[in-house]
């Protein structure tokens, strides 16, 4: 495993980070989830990402149980706050001081730890003053419940405003967690340049485009049984934007490129996002331990510039570049 600094902080994280969105507490039974976490530890992954909303808090509990007995100082644990949790009451979502303060305590209890290394705003809250949100985060850092602060799916302008307030308050806003893959590059024109300027690193989710970049989905064919595209609990909705024959046909043309580099399609996809020097880590999930062991082989891979250009030519105009998509795909009001 190779390690990278998270933004301009002194915190090093494993460049492949284990995430349990859509798996722990929902798609994957607890015993298998624990096996996946232990497989991640065995291959050198030390960074683990979750959120209170995943499986309505159950994912945090599963991760906390799976990490029982590990040396806390050797791990980097990340979680997030924003989306509705619990019964979905009127203060059970957003980035108000009330919700943040209550949520961090619940997350720490479920994760069985005194602190998280990174506490992230899971989306931007249009209904709470940013000053209130950042002051609450600052108080959590000063209380020792979080070491650093991050955001997820914020626009470049929102990141700049949040970073300015964090600097005034003397806390480290050091990370952004956006979707990023060969097929979804909306952060490249605005978020990445702003982040480079501010010393913020990306922890990117869905580097394999929810499985599309593995090549297992074939144009003109039904999705494989048990795949994410057949998951009625949420996976099918997330993957739907890529499930058209034009995208799937282009993806199939990546197979010879992966073969030439002696990588699987999934490894190629993960290695591709890690070529971006503003990316601190790629998030990978798993429903089986062997998936962890395979994905981690992308660590340390250097893809030649000519091959990166070849990938661009193969995918062509099916790639989404529009930076406005960060705003378009984010909630415009607090969810309930």
Textual characterization of the structure:
The protein has one domain (3-328): NADP-dependent oxidoreductase domain (TIM Barrel, Alpha-Beta Barrel), CATH 3.20.20.100. 36% of the residues lie in helices and 13% in strands. Strands 3-4-5-6-7-8-9-10 form an eight-stranded parallel barrel, surrounded by four helices. It has helices at 30-42, 58-66, 97-111, 130-142, 156-169, 191-198, 235-239, 245-252, 255-260, 265-273, 289-295, 305-315, 325-328; strands at residues 3-5, 12-14, 16-19, 47-49, 76-81, 116-121, 146-151, 173-176, 201-204, 279-284. The longest helix has 15 residues, at 97-111. The radius of gyration is 19 Å and the shape is globular. The mean pLDDT is 93. The chain is an alpha/beta fold and 336 residues long. Helix 1 links the parallel strand 3 (16-19) and strand 4.
């Amino acid at each position: 495993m190779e390690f990278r600094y998270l933004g301009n902080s002194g915190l090093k994280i494993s460049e492949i980070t284990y995430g349990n969105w859509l798996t722990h507490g929902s798609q994957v039974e607890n015993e298998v989830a624990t096996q996946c976490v232990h497989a991640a530890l065995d291959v050198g992954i030390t960074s683990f990402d979750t959120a209170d909303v995943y499986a309505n808090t159950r994912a945090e509990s599963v991760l906390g149980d799976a990490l029982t007995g590990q040396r806390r100082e050797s791990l980097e644990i990340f979680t997030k706050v924003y989306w509705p949790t619990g019964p979905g009451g009127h203060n059970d979502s957003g980035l108000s001081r009330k919700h943040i303060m209550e949520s961090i305590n619940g997350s720490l209890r479920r994760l069985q730890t005194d602190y998280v290394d990174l506490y992230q705003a899971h989306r931007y809250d249009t209904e709470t003053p940013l000053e209130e949100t950042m002051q609450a985060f600052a108080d959590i850092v000063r209380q020792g419940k979080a070491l650093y602060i991050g955001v997820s799916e914020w626009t470049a302008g929102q990141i700049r405003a949040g970073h300015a307030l964090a600097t005034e308050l003397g806390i480290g806003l050091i990370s952004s967690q956006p979707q990023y893959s060969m097929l979804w590059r909306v952060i490249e024109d605005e978020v990445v340049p702003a982040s480079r300027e501010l010393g913020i690193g990306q922890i990117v989710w869905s580097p394999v485009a929810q499985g599309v970049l593995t090549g297992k989905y074939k144009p003109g064919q039904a999705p494989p049984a048990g795949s994410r595209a057949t998951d009625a609990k949420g996976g099918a909705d997330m993957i739907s934007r890529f499930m058209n024959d034009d995208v799937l046909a282009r993806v199939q043309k990546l197979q010879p490129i992966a073969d030439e580099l002696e990588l699987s399609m999934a490894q190629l996809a993960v290695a591709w996002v890690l070529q971006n020097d503003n990316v601190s880590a790629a998030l990978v999930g798993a429903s089986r331990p062997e998936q962890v062991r395979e994905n981690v082989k992308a660590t340390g891979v250097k893809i030649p510039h000519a091959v990166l250009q070849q990938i661009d030519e193969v995918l062509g105009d099916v790639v989404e570049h529009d930076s406005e998509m960060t705003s378009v795909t984010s909630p415009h009001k607090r969810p309930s």
